[in-house]
Please model this.
Amino acid sequence: MSTDIERSISDSLEVNDVLLPHLPLLLQDLWVLGSSVDQILEVVGTLGLPNDSKVLDLGCGKGGVSIQLAAKYGFHVVGIDGMIPFLNEAKKKSVEYKVSQLCEFINQDINEFVLQEHEFDLVILAALGGIFGSFGHSVGKLRTQIRSGGYMIIDDGFLRKSDSHKRKGYEHYKNYETTLQELLAFNDHLIKEVSTSAVSKKINEEYMNFIRKRGYELIQKLPELENEIRSYIRLQEEECEVLENEIEGALWVIQKG
Ligand SMILES: C[S@@+](CC[C@H](N)C(=O)[O-])C[C@H]1O[C@@H](n2cnc3c(N)ncnc32)[C@H](O)[C@@H]1O
Model:
């Protein structure tokens, strides 16, 4: 029986309990796990945050976003994730990028972490989907983690044509108008919206090539998992298709009012 955090991690990475332990191997070629990191780095640069700013990265994965923010801007970053192998990789990378003194990586359920209020200058929720539920719920939680006037960055998207989506993990997706209403339900200020669709398409193609390659290698090593691995690859391909055809990728910067 999996715990809540295991279920949340499995859902966020669309993998079942059997494959979860093999995920670090399947995703070994990827540092950033789905977010539009270059656009996040660029948009953060426009906010005029001082070098000693404190950043929270919820579901930081291997630290692909946090570490590059620390390296580029000198920010102090705290990354929270429940996958220990990803956090170990993040710690290694922070040494490689010479920013380990600016980075703290914590193994914790993000649902638990946000129960306590914090005063970060910036909080990031990148490629985490509907882990906190609707966009309204996400913003409700994110804004408890920042000071007044602090920023929230959400890297996700909205539905191009329909009003809802049946796919598991896509329940939070809405049309553009509803998404914006939810994002701004607390009367915060939308500072910037950046389209990430073109970049995501490229990232997803690269992501799929690595996953296929590592998936087939794992089948050679563990033939008893062949069906599981093949269906994981199929599910990822299907997700890429849905993302490409039905979701408009967007990055929102919202300032807490
Ligand atoms: C798709 S990845 C995105 C990682 C990172 N933001 C990036 O773009 O590289 C989702 C991450 O969220 C983590 N995660 C999912 N649910 C979680 C939870 N409840 N608590 C902590 N981490 C969680 C997973 O372990 C995974 O590293």
Q: What stands out?
A: The first strand starts at residue 54 and ends at 58. The first helix runs from residue 4 to 13. The chain has a mean pLDDT of 95.
